[in-house]
Structures are given as structure tokens and as C-alpha cells.
Amino acid sequence: MDKKKILERLQTPKAVRWFWIILCAPVALILLLLLLTRLGAFGKLPTFEELENPKSNLATEIYSDDGEMIGSFFIQNRSYVDYNELSPALVAALISTEDMRFYSHSGIDFISLARVAVKTLALGNRRQGGG
Fold first, then answer.
1. E strand or H helix at 73
2. Could you say which DSSP state residue 43 is in?
3. HSE of 69 in the Cβ direction (CA atoms, 13 Å)?
4. Partner of 72 at 20 to 30 A CA spacing, among 4, 22, 84, 107?
5. Cα separation of 24 and 85, whole Å?
6. Reduced to 3 states, what is the DSSP secondary structure of residue 116?
7. How many Å apart are CA 116 and CA 99, to the nearest integer?
8. Which residues of 15-48 are buried (b: 16+ CB within 10 A; e: fewer)?
């Protein structure tokens, strides 16, 4: 095709309409998601102060002068544990029950997303798990 025919084709109302749809749709979608987030459609979002100073349900421990623990007060008996203090068997059990391809994807499992799209959305089967 020569330049004249290409320009004629691009200036048709249908092509102009599709150009604006393709250009404006992502912007409109982002604005809609921001508005829905602001209105609380996805649940309550924490404030910056809550993110910087999270509340913890750790047990309060009372120690004597010589460093011996006398007792503890708690509603839920929780204590802080670093990741390297967890048993490797516990981590392996969690990963095996949650995501069998955990180490083979970058954080988004496209195979599971495809399964969700087909089985859950297309076929209406709600028992197939998440993506």
C-alpha cells in the first residue's frame, strides 16, 4: 500500500474510534481501580502510620534482675521467630500444601492462572483453588 491509502484508512471514523479506545481504556481502568480502592471496595487499607508501626500480639514477658523469666501475659501466646529459626520441614510442608511449583516461577504462576480462567471462570467450578 502506498502512503495515501494508509492515511485514508487511518482517518476513517472506525480507526479513529479504536485508536482512542486503545489509548484511553488503560487510563480509565487505572482511574477506576484507584477510585474503588479509595472508596474501600477492596477492604480497608492500612495507613502509613499503621504500616510503619504494626501492632503485635506478642506475649509480654517479665524477667527478674538475674535474667530469668518470671512469667508472661498474653491473649494469644505468640513469640517472634526469625525465618532461619523455622524448621526446614515446616517450610517444606507449607510450600507443598500451598504451591507445588513455588520454586519454578517468579511469583506469578501462569499455569495456575490459566487453570483458574478455564475451570473457575469458564466452567463455573469453584473448587479448583486459586492462581
1. strand 69-73
2. -
3. 6
4. 84
5. 50
6. helix
7. 14
8. eeeeeeeeeeeeeeeeeeeeeeeeeeeeeeeeee
- pLDDT tens-digit readout, 101-111: 888 888 788 88
Cell of 9: 484508512
**Short-list 103, 100, 96, CA closest to 115:** 100
Grid cell in block for residue 73: 501475659
HEC profile for 48-71? HHHHHCCCCCECEEEECCCCCEEE
Sequence-distant contacts of 53-56: CB under 8 A, at least 24 apart: 56/80
54-94 pLDDT, tens per residue?
887 888 889 999 999 999 888 888 888 899 999 999 988 88
Distances (CA, A) of 40 to 43, 44, 47, 93: 5, 6, 13, 35
